[in-house]
Write the structure tokens for this entry.
Amino acid sequence: MQLKKFDGINVVPMIDIMLVLLVIVLTTATFIAKGVIPLELPQGKSAKEFPRDQKLKITISQDGDVYLNESKCTVINLGSALESKERKCPVFLSCDKKASYEHFVEVLDLLKKMGFNKINIVTTR
């Protein structure tokens, strides 16, 4: 029995596998969250630049979901999470303009009831 001479490697199956992996990576990359809560903020004429070193950031999404520094919570959980926070630290409250006004008032009422006086409402210019 005579052995065949081995001249090269068939790379076509490897290319097929790599293309399938590339398609999987590209399709899943479009679904990965960017870590930002999507909001459409209302406009305000006296709006100032949003400071990046804020202490507390509360966000109300279009669906009425409440976030404290990017972690989702309910209004009841928000009250217990704010118990340990300094009352003098500034609070930045941003609310989607399509969100229910009731959610905004509920969070604002909770902040006032807990003694937070430095409440800033985030808008766009």
User: Anything to note?
Assistant: The two ends are 83 Å apart (CA to CA).
